[in-house]
Amino acid sequence: MMGSIQPALPRVALAALAATALLLAACAAPPPAPIASELPFEQAVDQATDNLAGQTQKLPAFLAKLAKRSVVLDPMLDAATGQQTHATTLLETRVSERLTTKFGTQFEILPFQSTNLSKALYLLTGTMTRVDSDGTAKKRALQIQLALTELASGNVVAQASALSLDEGLDHTPLAYYRDSPVLVKDKVIEGYARTSATPPGQRGDAFYLERIASAMLVNEATALYNQERYVEALGRYRSALAMPAGEQLRIVNGIYLASAKLGRTADAEQAFGRVVALGIAYNELGVKFLFNPGSTEFWSDPKVSGAYPMWMRQIAREAISAKVCMNVVGHTSKTGSGPANDALSLQRANFIRQRLTAEAAGLGPKTRTTGMGFRQNIVGSGSDNAVDALDRRVEFRIVPCP
Questions:
Q1: Single pTM value for the model
Q2: Whole-angstrom distance, CA of residue 264 vs CA of residue 182
Q3: How far is residue 395's CA from residue 155's CA, in Å, rounded to a whole number?
Q4: Is residue 112's pLDDT more than 60?
Q5: Cα(172)–Cα(45) distance, integer angstroms
Q6: What does the alpha-carbon distance between residue 290 and residue 227 come to, in Å, rounded to a whole number?
Q7: CA-CA distance, 22 to 19, in Å (whole number)?
Q8: Higher pLDDT, 220 or 305
Q9: Distance between CA atoms of 153 and 123, rounded to whole angstroms?
Q10: What distance separates the 2 farthest-apart alpha carbons in the chain?
Q11: What's the sign of the alpha-carbon dihedral 245, 248, 250, 256?
Q12: How far apart (Å, rounded) are the C-alpha atoms in residues 119 and 110?
């Protein structure tokens, strides 16, 4: 009996020792790496830029001691809105300065202009996006994404990101985006954002990369518009429109804006009709109708709301022409109670629908309304100024007809 038990004792002992060893190993193992925390803006940008540049040091093209690598920088964007803001301008300035001061022997940053396309080897893109840093939406942070793409192949060779505190930054849109009647976020902008988040070794967004040449003209035109040089801006936008890939929302919207600034009302209306047609083709059109606070009356200042009747006319005309059905969706900024904003957004959507059917009675059975309050805010700042103007929009979503 004893002889049959004794051999089992070492196995039990070994099992116990093994379990103890595993427990000790688990206790001795280093704790999991902490989740990246937010840094002050300048530190976060420097971290992402240094990471981006550091990845290039192992690439064959950078191991060779050659001349500086020429890089064109496509102006950086807010990924959620597709806008250029004072904050995104600060981001690209900081990234450029960091690359040229710390890695100046390797990189030469060229303006995003048509004359530099043949000179550049790489394309630099970057976005910022507001995120909830602690999962409770009480604290806001910015996700910064940077990517370096080889122009010849379209492959992303380096990509880096960092979390920044969203403190002391001015998210006011630049003039072109502030004045825009619509949400200017099309497939080109979405492709830009995807490229900025693409892992190294993968190809950037093809739709965006195929339109780099026209994007450069758009950038030149938009810079001129922001400088109030409307005649020159209009010429650049028209040149971009004439390119093979020129039928883009940013371009026809630029023609509308510059024509309106120059008082060319017929040209502006024609251009706005094309803006609407592109939005319908994209299945969603977000228009910035500004109302008096707490009401369904348009903003009293005719400098702001004077063009609204024309907008209505063109939206109705293009919807009838395209034979589509639409859900008219009202939105509000994040100020006040949820129920009150839900009711107000629905009232405004009904008001817009009434104005549309007054322009084209045939739209009556082809439209319905929804009030989303602030549940689908794009910005969500609750500032009730130019920063969150996109949150106070009315969307025309294309839906299947009954």
A1: 0.83
A2: 19
A3: 35
A4: yes
A5: 19
A6: 25
A7: 5
A8: 220
A9: 11
A10: 108
A11: positive
A12: 9
